[in-house]
Amino acid sequence: MGMAIVLITHDLGVIAEMCDDVVVMYAGRIAESGPVDALFSHPSHPYTRGLLNSIPRLSTARKSRLNVIEGMVPSLADLPSGCRFQNRCPYRIDTCLRQPPLEEVTPGHHVACHRWRELPPLPIPS
Ligand code: SF4
């Protein structure tokens, strides 16, 4: 019908099921964007990876703790200069005090992280 729907959610399952394209926002800025398949198979921003890593799996042992992203979202009244994810990011370096540009990972898939090329592969969820 020539229409589009914008879903705003933290539920990555809904995104995987319903969407063609996804934009991951953090503290008002784009962290990563692209086709759902590309972004879910090669998440390139530490925040995206943290979100995916926090999804409970059926294979998770009972009574084990869920993975979380440590720390808190910064106050929008007191945002850090540079990357806004820096106070929660395990890969932070001094360069992160400058805002990372959106860079192309693959055609249509973009990420704003100074270190996206260096991140270790994520474990394959079972
Ligand atoms: S730019 Fe730096 S602080 Fe921000 S997500 Fe990338 S590594 Fe982490």
In total, how many beta strands? 4
Question: Given the helix and strand composition, which structural class is it?
Answer: alpha+beta
Radius of gyration: 15 Å
Tell me the number of structural domains: 1
The end-to-end span amounts to 38 Å
Q: Count the DSSP helices.
A: 3
List the helices and strands and how they pair.
Blueprint: H1 12-18, E1 21-26, E2 29-35, H2 36-41, H3 46-53, E3 103-106, E4 109-111
Antiparallel strand pairs: 1-2, 2-4, 3-4
The structure holds iron/sulfur cluster (SF4).
Descriptive overview:
- This protein is α+β, with helices and mostly antiparallel strands.
- A 4-stranded antiparallel β-sheet has the order 1-2-4-3.
- The longest helix is centred in the middle third of the chain and has 8 residues.
- The model has no long low-confidence stretch (mean pLDDT 92).
Quick overview:
The chain has 126 residues and is an alpha+beta fold. The chain is 17% helix and 16% strand. It has one domain (12-55, 69-118).
Note the main attributes of this structure.
globular; 126 residues; alpha+beta; 17% helix; binds iron/sulfur cluster
